[in-house]
């Protein structure tokens, strides 16, 4: 068991070092994805709220109800987000990038 713990520790150390090296590329990728997300969602509070509910735990119906968004509008939003590879292909919409509500605040 001790050996397995050491291996796990070493793997975590390697992972953390790789993240440090890759940080500039990850930040650039995330920035472009967040910009694309803002462009698709726009200023609609209902669309913004819907996107924040896309955690992979809610069905489209639940998202539409909680966000107060029309089902057709939500369907078009989901389709567009999938086209630009920001949503998982699963039945319950899940954003592939982490976001916070502050993403949609005016800068």
CATH architecture term: Orthogonal Bundle
Number of separate domains = 1
Number of helices: 4
CATH class placement? Mainly Alpha
* Radius of gyration (Å): 18 Å
Range of helix content: 55-70%
Mean of residue pLDDT values:
90
Biggest sheet features: none
From the N-terminal CA to the C-terminal CA, the straight-line distance is: 51 Å
Strand content: under 5%
Category by helix and strand content: mainly alpha
* Shape field: elongated
Q: How many beta-strand runs?
A: 0
Secondary-structure element series: HHHH
CATH fold assignment? Arc Repressor Mutant, subunit A
Structure commentary:
The protein is mainly alpha-helical. The protein has one domain: Arc Repressor Mutant, subunit A. The chain contains four helices and no strands. Helix 2 crosses helix 3. It starts with a helix and ends in a 24-residue tail after the last helix.
Outline of the structure:
With 107 residues, the chain is mainly alpha-helical. Helix content is 64%, strand content 0%.
Keywords:
107 residues, mainly alpha, 64% helix, Arc Repressor Mutant, subunit A
